[in-house]
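yo

u said u wanted the structure for the complex thing, so here. seqs first:
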Amino acid sequence: MLKDKNIALYVTGGIAVYKAVDLLRTFIKEGANVRVGMTESATKFVNPLTFQVLSRNEVHIDTFYESTPEHLAHIHISDWADIAVVAPATTNTIAKIAHGIADNFVTSSLVATKAPVFVVPAMNTDMYENQATQANIQTLENRGIKVLEPDTGFLAEGYEGKGRFPDKERILDELESFIIQHSEDLPLKGYKFLVSAGGTEERIDPVRYITNDSSGKTGYAIARAAYYQGADVQLVTTAEHPLPNAIEKIKVSSADEMYQVIDKLFELTDVLVMTAAVADYKVASQSKSKMKKDELADKIVIELEENPDILKAMGNKKDKQFLVGFAAETENLEEYARKKLEKKNLDMIIANDVSREDTGFNVDFNEVIILTKDDKRFDISRQTKNNIARIVVEKIINELNA
Ligand code: CTP
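structre next:
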């Protein structure tokens, strides 16, 4: 998401400056270009050289120091930026931004920027809760500036309170959502995606169930990839993995539960992607209490009955929806997958060979064939499930625009 984005990182003076170093490294790792501006007080906590080395760009501190005569540094950086991030933001800088004060490099540059501004406050609890700080934060938010809520925890002052610099993961998550909100040209803007993930759990009794090897990673990766292309995403899942807050997660366990949720949401869905490994059978009569060994014979038979085929049911009732299925096969990959595509009235199917140990269930890699209703075939070589998800979403976009 941050790849090739130009980020102006403004660092202001609080103890959390050292955490901004790690944030900068994360931006670089994600493929962003970063230029840093610091206040004088920020330089008291961490030497600007650290930011310079990591960003591979000159760090700006003094508004009146111009290393290149062709342009004014504080205007140049604000024009160059796709997004401005103030982290950590002190109560002093927040107050200045709120009132349009431009008395140092950071605040002058922020007054001049047309890029969306994302603020990460970090300060003492009492300073954060002070009425003036809160009023200034409100002013920024009214202006469309995103101000993150600090974390609660152990503060530099030696006691617990609200004001900590948030976890890097949360900052990234919120920053990506903020960028998506500000991007008008994303190809899936306005589309509603419904994605299913994980292996269903079919109860035998209150403490035992039948399930399968699906980790749910592909479903999560598809949900994320669609969201990064601007889609509004709902994920129905049996599995737990990290997910951006803006994706609505609906936890289910059995195939019946998954069916009920998907059936309810289907009408308002534009694209349904079924990556879930739905159990074909469930236990015919679940025991309400734990089955006790003493009360059972040496050999027991558990009777199974068919589960609903969710995808097939949606294929039967679809009107405008674009349906994507997955086919997990151990032989005759393309033939079986194409049969499923036709039988379930799908628009696209992603086939993978689950007999291989280096791809498929429970590993981070996959190799797939993508087949479409109108006989297109794409062979996607072995790569991470995240990459595969991006490619699948790309193919869906192409089909939606065809
Ligand atoms: N699927 C579903 N409901 C089921 C079984 C499968 O919605 N009860 C969906 C899966 O999420 C997947 C597609 O159908 O997207 C194909 O699943 P798969 O297990 O490969 O195929 P089945 O139809 O179950 O056929 P078989 O197990 O015989 O290969």
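Residues 255, 274, 276, 278, 280, 307, 309-311, 325-328, 340 surround cytidine-5'-triphosphate (CB under 6 Å). The mean pLDDT is 94.
cya
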